[in-house]
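Final report, results section. Input specification for complex C-07:
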Amino acid sequence: MVRKRRELARWLRRAAIAALLAVPAAALAVPPWYFQTPATPVAREIITLHDLIFWICVAIFIGVFGTMFYSLYRHRKSVGHQAVQFHENTAVEVIWTIIPFLILLFMAWPATKTILAAHDTAASDMTIKVTGYQWKWNYDYVQEGFGYYSTLATPLDQIEGRAPKDEHYLLEVDNPLVVPVGAKVRVLVTANDVIHSWWVPAFGVKQDAIPGFVRDTWFRADKVGIYRGQCAELCGKEHGFMPVVVEVKSKDDYAKWVAEQKQKLGAAAQNPNKVWDEKELVAHGEQVFNANCAACHQAGGTGNAAIGAPALVGDKVVLGPAQHQIDVVLNGQTDGVVQKAPTGGKMPSWSQLSDVDIASVITYTRNSWGNKAGENVVQPSAVKAERK
Amino acid sequence: MSSIPHDLVVGGVPHGEHAHHPKGIMRWITTTNHKDIGTMYLWFSFTMFLVGGVMALTIRSELFQPGLQIVNPEFFNSMTTLHGLIMIFGALMPGAVGFANWLIPMQIGAPDMAFARMNNWSFWLLPPAAFMLLLSLFVPGGASSGGWTMYPPLTIQQGMGMDLTIFAIHIMGASSIMGSINIITTILNLRAPGMTLMKLPLFCWAWLITAYLLIAVMPVLAGAVTMLLTDRHFGTSFFNAAGGGDPVLFQHVFWFFGHPEVYIIILPAFGIISEIIPTFSRKPLFGYASMVYALAAIAILSFLVWAHHMFTTGMPSASILFYMYATMLIAVPTGVKVFNWLATMWKGSITLEAPMLFALGFLFLFVIGGFTGLILAIQPIDVQFQDTYYVVAHFHYVMVAGTLFAFFGGTYYWLPKWTGHMYNEKLADWHFWLSFVFFNVAFFPMHFLGLAGMPRRVPDYAQQFTDWNMVSTIGAFGFGLSQLVFLTAVVKCIRGGAPAPAKPWDGATTLEWTLPSPAPYHSFETPPTVK
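Structure output:
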């Protein structure tokens, strides 16, 4: 019994030492532990403000606990200290009420200045509307007249550990938000379904996206580069998988990029009836599927019964008449059993995707994972015809 | 007013040790004895602490490295949600009520709580509520997964697990309100002759103020979740913009409850610490009156700061400034309390038994949590930290190292009175040091994660966050396992140990130490007189 206890004590002591060593050992590699490099004046001000208040707190902490440890050292019974029976001293109590108050005033002043500056959205150079969706972002260039979705680009294989994770694991998207350097960008933020939060740490910007309401914020990036953030408000099961990526380009590159976007838009508008071949559709469809459908139906089309997403392998809608599948994808599930599940449990409408996207993704499902539907190719024109 | 005649309180009740009560399980189901009920609250709290702890370890296991390994994201979200709800409503709040039940009557010289039958009912509401919360894990659609804050519209989308959560909150709220009415009535009406309000032990003062806070805000929470319920099932649109509602309205109502709630959790802990520090310093509390005023000031301020939880929803600058200033002001009464505890220790005759160790651990770590709270109060900084691991670190420093450490300290402090045995000091010291070290290993790195930009409530993360998450997971397992030492120490103390004298701590001054150890089943049937 005694030996056992001694062994246990020895084991516990070893465990405690190992735990104590774990901290400095991990610190040797110095993983990131501080703010990301700021890229806007507001983000820089936030860091200055944080450091000021942090060091004031450290100073007070050392004062307070210096006193405590001194007292623990000198005023212990084991060193023979007798308790001195004193209590209540109005002067001391007034002092330790007023001095913290003055320190707070000293902290509040710079904080107030930063708040007023950070909330001035007037005189912006351009406006972008950001809409949060479960689980992706939409960026709408209001003045330029185009917009697009921005979806996680990390493949499922990396998330589920079947492939090595790349450098920007979970912080990469198919289409980043693109802005010019030095411009004051006003961001209108809203959401389509639940509350999201648009956050770019390097910009010092975090704004909740609230369905039914539009809030605004702004940033002025002063360095060209790619900046990565994430959705910061719990928005459902894929909350951790909807990053925000902003690419800040030089003025010229930005102008070029805008021209390209407009040209693409024009090309698509001019040629709605282009006939695509199966290979093109399947290749594009796979991208669309992984960005939009795989969250529920899974990358292999195996479905997720827990949330009411059927397997698409051998599914009767996928193998049946194309027109019905187009209708389901465009308008959501309107017939059959509607199961109430965490994510709504029913196929939502995907009418926000383009005709080409929908045609491609349908074609992809009809030709993948062993599926071979009778009508195995769906053209964008068929989707267009089905839109009401 | 400060006491009522003796025969009114105990009229018709059999006196003495040979209490006439059923044996076995029926004793616990039918008991109206404040000591039995206190014991049940404390064991319920500890059980929920282990259940919530297993959920925390599930979360930490998934976060040990990037990628999805152990649970899927829906279940992960259910774990974070239930961990929060169970720790707050199942572990911390009932734990505090357990201490109140055991100690308030003994500290004010009353024979029992004012409403003994209601006391039984307040406790027995809790197990079914906890059962419903856990049951929700097994219903179609799974448990609620929108976070313990339950923000709509996300929670409108969820399955019947959310309805079970809403009903569980209703029941636990009813339990809290009844408990609070009981505590207020007991303290205001059953004090021994001569015990004026300004002679009340600080633990009772802390609970009196907490009980008023509970009565003020639990109905607000009930209202908020009821609105959720009608939005979910009866076609109302309180929180739906398409029907003229506003999702942010929920956040205002929720945090009007939620902020006082954090003081509901910490004030009883302040009370316990204010009993322990003078005892082990062998000196009276430095500023009794200013401690009472500071408690009251914190309670009042807690109603004026709720929107600091919503700094990123997009508020006008004027509102932001108001809530920021009001939040910063809380540092003043909190400072008064900390300085008072220090001044109490100053020139005392200090010994470091386990209760004092936990009180000092509380002081040290709670102040860290207080400072990060001040940093979070500064709105521009909060914009960076809102919904990141920095916030997770902050509230675990005040909830775990704050309230939980105070409960551990309080348990060791009063165990001799409860059981009649001294606890094993060596085991208790091990419990403290293991908890202290592993707590910091688990939660200190979360500050770094938040600073570096890791959002909370995510099942997977970018690779630069890997190292600190690994350290944190190791710490969490260490902290969890350390609690088995606590369980061992408590069980050993109940089963035996050196017999405890009536007053095992020579510095203790409150009335419970005038009773023999263990405290008799019925105590103070004749009220003592307080000079």
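Residues 1-17 of chain B have pLDDT under 50 and may be disordered. Residues 30 and 527 of chain B are 26 Å apart (CA to CA). This concludes the modelling results for the funded period.
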